[in-house]
Predict the structure of 5'-deoxynucleotidase.
Amino acid sequence: MSSAVPVLDFGSMTQVIHFLMEIDKLKSIQRRTKVIGTQRQENSAEHSWHFAIAAMSLAPYASKEVDIQRVIQMALLHDIVEIDAGDVFVYDLAARAAIHDQEVAAAKRLFGLLPEPQCEHFTALWQEYEEGESADAQFATVLDRSMPMLMNLHNEGQSWIENNVSLEQVLARNGMIANIYPELWQYLFRHLQDAQRKGWLK
Amino acid sequence: MSSAVPVLDFGSMTQVIHFLMEIDKLKSIQRRTKVIGTQRQENSAEHSWHFAIAAMSLAPYASKEVDIQRVIQMALLHDIVEIDAGDVFVYDLAARAAIHDQEVAAAKRLFGLLPEPQCEHFTALWQEYEEGESADAQFATVLDRSMPMLMNLHNEGQSWIENNVSLEQVLARNGMIANIYPELWQYLFRHLQDAQRKGWLK
């Protein structure tokens, strides 16, 4: 899949340092969204940073059940599996379903580079995020879905236009936000309708 | 400086969303270090992600006084001031001293985009990191300094060679790691000496 990173001796930290160098590859996984006002596609590492900062910044708006520290950690590691499995566009539902087994194998290989306690912690957080049932995972999913919508709304619909996305698709895929974070959805919904009027969404 | 990001109405979240779109610009601040095995310089947003994941992964090796959640938050926001002040090479000591006032003004402008509670929280964490005196700030500094060294050790000394850096400079600037995280320094020191023998450091 990707080229080997040398393993240097760091005593009891050898596995962790090797993991950290291996996941440098997330900086080369490209998404559809471009950095605002540029022609460069953002990568999954910088997206993960943006998502984690969003969790920190929006913490006061989360419901009381949400532990924002766990959401931040989910943000930091939610895309690491893409190093082996690749990024799949959020509106490509067939590809998303097909890739699930590859992502499970990727989590096993990548988090498996870590010592047992960190491996267990990271794997459990990633699985919880994927399952999307806990309050923390639901809030994390809202933020992960919202970031590219917000970027499109501030970047003249760039990735929607380039990928021929319709308002109907955006509503179907992201309407769950209405249940989890109704205040955010109320404004997003209005801006999405505006975006369609401007021709940014089909 | 940088172009204006449109401000969209998100009710009580308007300021936070504007802040999140403004800091998208951190993805365009380039560092000297290149993504391992590529010719692309990493940017400060993806570096911040890498540093935050390092904090998560190395948590079991931190001293008991360290609150790793605060270190993760410091990692996420420590470089945001570079949006206005730019990135200065860690070995350019004159430039680092000269830029301090610009960074303070940048923190004021950028964190000032947020509502009062988040502004105060982010500013206080950034100041604590800059002062480098608390146990959390010291552990954060060790990780921030270690990441580019680790990347160089795994990437044939790329940024050291390109910027004509000597072993003496690296030891003078990073020797503080020996006091804060002696086990890590023991291994780093050995690999840095190896790097000099290989011609990666002067």
Observations:
- The CA atoms of residues 88 and 96 of chain A lie 6 Å apart.
